[in-house]
Amino acid sequence: MLKKIFFTAALACLLLTAAPAMAEQSPTERVQEGVAEIIKILSDPEMTLPANHEKGLSALRATAEKYISFRMAAMYSVGKPWLKMSDKVQADLVEAFTELLERTYLQRIPSYGGEHVKYVKEIKAGKKAKVFTQFIAKDKKITVEFRLANIDGAWMLYDTVAEGVSLIANYRTQFSKVLADSTPEDLIAKIRARTKELSDEARAEQETKS
Question: Which domain holds residue 14?
Answer without folding.
Answer: 2-204
